[in-house]
Amino acid sequence: MKDKFYNYIVELQNKITSALEKIDGKASFHEDEWKRTEGGGGKTRVIQNGDVFEKGGVNISAVHGHLPKSMQNYFKVEDVDFFACGLSLVIHPKNPFVPTVHANWRYFEMYPSTPLRMTPSTSLTKSSPGASNEKSKKIIDQWFGGGQDLTPYYLFDEDAKHFHQVCKTACDKHDASFYQKYKKQCDDYFWNHHRNEARGVGGLFFDYLKANDERPIEDWYSFVTEIGDSFLDAYIPIVEKRKDMKFTQAQRDWQEIRRGRYVEFNLVHDKGTLFGLKTNGRIESILMSLPPHVQWRYDHNPDPNSPEEELIKVLQNPKDWTKA
Amino acid sequence: MKDKFYNYIVELQNKITSALEKIDGKASFHEDEWKRTEGGGGKTRVIQNGDVFEKGGVNISAVHGHLPKSMQNYFKVEDVDFFACGLSLVIHPKNPFVPTVHANWRYFEMYPSTPLRMTPSTSLTKSSPGASNEKSKKIIDQWFGGGQDLTPYYLFDEDAKHFHQVCKTACDKHDASFYQKYKKQCDDYFWNHHRNEARGVGGLFFDYLKANDERPIEDWYSFVTEIGDSFLDAYIPIVEKRKDMKFTQAQRDWQEIRRGRYVEFNLVHDKGTLFGLKTNGRIESILMSLPPHVQWRYDHNPDPNSPEEELIKVLQNPKDWTKA
């Protein structure tokens, strides 16, 4: 399963970066390959200063080894070995009418702890992301997680509806209850507690998708890759529709102020970010999610009945976009 | 003691905001008075878009009541009542050659817990910041804390030396060991762990200054107010010297990129900020510390042997400025 999913995210990274480069027309992704001292590594691809995309990253990683103490506490497990791989992306467009998007799909395996091995560190290759001696290990736990969500600066109902409808269609192929469940988990997770508002208009968020009596792990693979495959359909039509709209400096300022809330969420509340920062992850790959230009103004409040205020009202009361 | 120190910070807020307005020449501080539902409140004074100061806040607060659960865990105490007051300031100048400065001086008291009282909430007045019925309460613990530190974007050795020399002179009046001790605590506290560098060139940081056999609480009052009184001497001459220096867009960009590190420290590591965000503090007063314009670029590294790289080298290896 780990090779199968790793191969999937390798292909998906290629597919997504090609599609984004095509729509940008000017900038292309720069790739940095990195290694993790304790095992594994990743490929970070970043686009900057494009015509459409001001800054964005589409990263894959596959790491393995002894589960660090901090992660043991987090997962409430004893001494174990692990393998984790995933694709993580955040795209910050230039035009304030094009929403920021985030997505992540990941897979995790745990094994009984083995004594410290003195093997040479393995390289990250397409077909064999983990250390070869992990292939024969007994898997004691395994699960998928991830999701995708949209953060607009100006709200176009049709864009939010489109994004959510694509999410729902993909979910419905697997279970009629999934969309409502994972949509709600997304609204709950991306809640900026100290601001009492959502980070954006949501989408899907799921975690700990484990094999059970009804669903073997292959079914979860099929569900998660269904969502991964839906990403470009969910996002690209919105970019196409909004990328050439004219905007004012005031609208750009509003985008930069709202990006401040994005930073606040990611640095104060996002488990993935804090986790990476506190477990010696590759800082530049983790923080590629932060927007290029950001503003903080003291006690900034939009004018009553303005489009800016309208956005905030929706963020304070998440809507059911597929019923609206 | 609490009335005495509160009166001191009221006067100090006036003194500091007047001095900063005078040097700015254009912008003035706007005051917001706020109340805390559970007891007490504060006066937030913010300056924005000045000729010299792009954004800055000089805030005082005096809060009291039942110590919230999260603070009980933090201080490792049981059910108690508390009083806390302090002055907190962060100033972000426009010119990248003028350093950002932060300072804070605070006082804390704890009392045995009283049953929930149904008294009307008391107003914040100059002479009586706490609820009157706390005056007669037995103090079970009391301490001072605070400090001041400098964050330059371009390093002028003479500025760092001046700032530290003023700190040292103020410390030396009280104890020959204080400067080294509190300078080191400052370097340790304002360490941006995930970047492996200091937030700035430091200054002083102290906490839990409690009465002991050598020093009654009055001596700590006298020490902390000595530092508070030294603030303008430490900072203003640097502003005067640098505020009219010409700068390029590239230097301004560097300032905004470094401000990103300031945001990272405050949102990821700063105990005061996280504390406020998680205990229902007044968000706009807490986050006034965030800079007005900020940039994040992927994997940005200054040119070898540039002034920008020189700054980073010093931030990675804090210096003893009074001996340099």
SSE arrangement:
The structure is a homodimer of 324-residue chains.
Chain A: H1 2-24, E1 30-35, E2 40-48, E3 53-66, H2 69-75, E4 80-93, E5 100-112, E6 141-151, H3 157-172, H4 178-189, E7 191-192, E8 197-198, E9 202-209, H5 217-242, H6 249-269, H7 271-278, H8 283-286, E10 293-295, H9 307-316
Antiparallel strand pairs in A: 1-2, 2-3, 3-4, 4-5, 5-6, 6-9, 7-8
CATH architecture name of chain A: 3-Layer(aba) Sandwich
Number of domains of chain A: 1
Strand residue percentage of chain A: 25-35%
Instruction: Figure out the total of helices of chain A.
Output: 9
CATH topology of chain A: oxygen-dependent coproporphyrinogen oxidase
Structural class of chain A: alpha+beta
Major β-sheet strand ordering of chain A: 1-2-3-4-5-6-9
Distance between the termini of chain A: 39 Å
Multimeric status of the protein = homodimer
